[in-house]
Amino acid sequence: MSAQPPGPRPRPRPQPAKPRQPPTPTPQTGSRPVPAHTPVPAHTPAPATARWPDDPLPLALGTAPVPEYGSGSLADLLPTLAAGQGVPNVTAAIPELTPADRNCVFLIDGLGWEQIKAHPAEAPYLTSLLGTSRGSTGRPITAGFPATTATSLASVGTGLPPGAHGLPGYTVRDPATGALMNQLRWQPWTAPHVWQPYPTVFQLADAAGVHTAQVSSPTFRNTPLTQVALSGGTFHGRLTGEDRMDLAAAQLAAADRSLVYTYYSEVDGKGHRFGVDSDAWRGQLMYVDRLVQRLAEQLPPRAALYVTADHGMIDIPFDEESRIDFDEDWELRAGVALLGGEGRARHVYAVPGAEADVLTVWREVIGDRFWVASRDEAVEAGWFGPPGTVEERVYGRIGDVVAAAHADVVITASVKEPHESAMVGMHGSMTPVEQLVPLLEVRS
Fold first, then answer.
1. CB 409 within 8 Å of CB 322
2. pTM score above 0.70
3. pLDDT at position 2, please?
4. I want to staple 357 with a disulfide (CB 3.0 to 4.6 A). Which of 23, 82, 315, 436 is the partner?
């Protein structure tokens, strides 16, 4: 796999003669969420406590490759296509794309740019299209942070960055209840259009007279995530990939102006279970390569097909250096009330009053392998959207501390997240292998 971040360095531990004590929470003031329009002062780190001579320095936050919000991210795709079809109240944001009367977006879950480049034998058709990506510039676009399905699908469907649509992670704290909310499975139940109140681009296009359709698995017809991210026009459920491709082509040809979305999930599923270096994953890649070609060969006149993904994926070894178990690590647990997000993109919610201490400890313990930021630092750095776009209702959903993996490492939770902790393939962070996604194009 190309362009992966460097491997993990050994994790320093204090010597027995100088045991490190759990942090003592210190009173904090001004912890009320800050509205998006209010300038957030730069974070001043707490005074450094004693460091061991061999402790590596934390990664500088400025080295994190922030997504291309506003010019080349998943959130910019549908507004660009719809604007080219004359839909009002949307703005073309990816300048490299040329308008078409009929647009189809085929999103392949988990198939990042680096995975296509690394497997030309398994994906000959997709490989032949690499030069067409992003308006024939041969460049990818970015998923957004975190690079995870719920966040990315909401960005695709609403045309908004995570800080605006409000799905900023796999699991995040609901400020109204204080409990973690899984935004992929929508557990516990939360009123969908209260959680994400904006109309989708599909709804705007449908209202403007564009023929709009989604073609996906019947399983997703009535899910809350579909309601808040992908609704608008008509949903068509089909079980097989071949049926989806054929119906997507038919829906594309059903009107002079059409906007069609179709989706395939099993590349991601096999990657999580077996890894992107497995025969099972390669088999899915070969299959989806044929699906793309099948759809491309059926495009009606004046049509454009865009093949993209919600994130890439990286395999994480099963060893202590690569998998840090939060449930077994007293240093990382100290002062933490809730652990959200996922292994490579963690939202950390501190016990009230312990926010600064948790930030300090997380930087000391994992800061050489993760970008570790306070909530305000992550917001101001543009992780969740351009500065000023994180809404007050979303601000409290973001962790007091946000940790994004740089090295080939994850923070698991073997007790509370046994299923997720057992996965081989992971994603979520801002490294190229996770963040870069294709925008392959075929025109008729």
1. yes
2. yes
3. 40
4. 23
